[in-house]
Amino acid sequence: MQTTLKASYTNHYRRGLIELLEVLEFRSNNAAHQPVIDALKLVQRYARAGSTTYYPLGETTPDHKGTLKDWADLVYCTDTSGRRRVARMVYEVATFQTLREQLHCKEIWMVGADRWRNAYEDLPADFESRRAEHYRELRKPLDPTESRDSLREEMTSALAKLNDGLSSLDWVQISDRKAGAIMLTPIEAAPSRATCDGSRTRSPAAGAPSR
Questions:
Q1: C-alpha radius of gyration, the chain, whole number
Q2: How far apart are CA 204 and CA 192, in angstroms?
Q3: What is the mean pLDDT of the segment spanning 131-160?
Q4: How many CB atoms lie within 10 A of CB 44?
Q5: Rounded to an integer, what distance in angstroms lies between the CA atom of residue 162 and that of residue 137?
Q6: Are 97 and 17 in contact (CB under 8 A)?
Q7: Helices (H), the chain
Q8: When comparing pLDDT for 24 and 68, which is higher?
Q9: For 35-49, how does the pLDDT look when each residue is reduced to its tens digit (9 = 90+)?
Q10: DSSP secondary structure code for residue 155 in this structure
Q11: How far is CA 173 from the centre of its chain?
């Protein structure tokens, strides 16, 4: 899938995305997401580098969650001299994909945008001065640890029930197989049922119209 996406990006989408990158400005209120912002600047700086396969040795290529997970094996390569290199086109794809994800949850926002604006602008202008009142209307505690602890307790309880219940199900098996950790035993077909006129229903033959 990653290889197909890379090919589509290189042959079609890249030109438009690079042009957008030249006129749009992205920011984040959380320092944890700054590597993506820095990666976008790197992409823009080498946007006209032609057919350069790798970023130059010594160039700083910010790591972010997009390059450290599913894309890692394609982003980072070893050249003929045994040196670790960063594949430029794959790095761009992984960076733009991460940007898309973080724009959706507003971890990263766009200057001058409406839908993708700074999340702080979504709050009422008097939010800080009337915080207690707003939280009361939302039925949320002022202390975030209360909400966090309550949610954690709820999730822990639900997961414990799931874990305890799985062992009693004879049609579910949990394994360490790479093909799938959860295996379900096929369920036998249910018996046919009698209808009001005494006949019995059955599945129509393949391709035959049902009544």
A1: 27
A2: 12
A3: 90
A4: 13
A5: 34
A6: no
A7: 2-8, 14-23, 34-45, 72-75, 88-104, 131-138, 144-166
A8: 24
A9: 999 999 999 999 998
A10: H
A11: 28
In single-letter form, the type of residue at position 92 comes to E
> How many CA atoms are closer than 13 Å to the CA of 5, on its beta-carbon side?
13
For residues 202 and 191, give the distance between their C-alpha atoms in angstroms, rounded to a whole number: 9
Distance CA 94, CA 149 (A): 34
Phi, psi of 113 (to 5 degrees): -90, 170
Nearest residue to 10 (alpha-carbon basis) of 65, 98, 113, 2: 2
Buried b (16+ CB within 10 A) or exposed e, 81-108: eeeebbbbbbbbbbbbbbbeebbeebbb
Whether pTM exceeds 0.70: no
28 is written with which tokens?
Answer: 């984040």
Write out pLDDT tens, residues 140-151.
Answer: 889 988 888 889
Sign of CA dihedral 131, 136, 142, 147: negative
